[in-house]
Amino acid sequence: IAGITQAPTSQILAAGRRMTLRCTQDMRHNAMYWYRQDLGLGLRLIHYSNTAGTTGKGEVPDGYSVSRANTDDFPLTLASAVPSQTSVYFCASRTSPDTGELFFGEGSRLTVL
Amino acid sequence: GQNIDQPTEMTATEGAIVQINCTYQTSGFNGLFWYQQHAGEAPTFLSYNVLDGLEEKGRFSSFLSRSKGYSYLLLKELQMKDSASYLCAVQDSNYQLIWGAGTKLIIKP
């Protein structure tokens, strides 16, 4: 069982480019989340999905979009990357929106030049 | 506003005991989580407290006082592999997790 898989592991891209970070889980979890982690700051929620077909905005949603077409996949898209989006991005999931601990993917390190 | 405070960095000796504190002010409370994160890796779950008191799990224990907005993670018999960041997170009234910046724990031989 893989748990949560994120891709790519690391990426460097030019400002203005479009980028999609992929996240897939095989635990049949209903709730999924995207966080960014920056030095000296706690994990900050970008977007979340309580169940397939629904999404919501977190603390720092600007410049990002998500979709949840099915239970397993929760991609994060940067429409036009900017240097301030340089960060480590973690996808996470849990059984339901109000129960249990979060399980995290291994992270995607993104550098925008 | 919502705020989670924990020390930025702590140093301890192998074999000793260390206590990492976390204080919080959030809109509602539905439990507090502790996670461990080794450098360059994903956070992994350590403990969850929703009622006051101490929860013990092997070498790790976690304590909660809701009236004081306070929790601590206690690590006993420290090992070199315990060198990591420890993240405190409070689940708010909307069941979203609010995260502290983490405490980097350095273990010295």
Short structural description:
The complex is a heterodimer of chains A (113) and B (109). Chain A is mainly beta.
Question: What can you tell me about this protein's structure?
Answer:
The complex is a heterodimer of chains A (113) and B (109). With 113 residues, chain A is an all-beta fold. Chain A has no helices and 11 strands. Chain A has strands at residues 4-7, 10-13, 19-25, 31-37, 44-49, 56-57, 64-66, 76-78, 87-94, 103-104, 108-112. In chain A, the strands form 2 sheets. In chain A, strands 2, 4, 5, 6, 9, 10 and 11 form a 7-stranded mixed sheet that branches. Chain A has a 4-stranded antiparallel sheet with strand order 1-3-8-7, with no helix packed on it. In chain A, 35% of the residues are buried. Chain B has 109 residues and is mainly β. Chain B contains no helices and 11 strands. In chain B, the strands form 2 sheets. In chain B, strands 2, 4, 5, 9, 10 and 11 form a 6-stranded mixed sheet that branches. Chain B is globular. At the A-B interface, strand 5 and strand 10 of A face strand 5 and strand 10 of B.
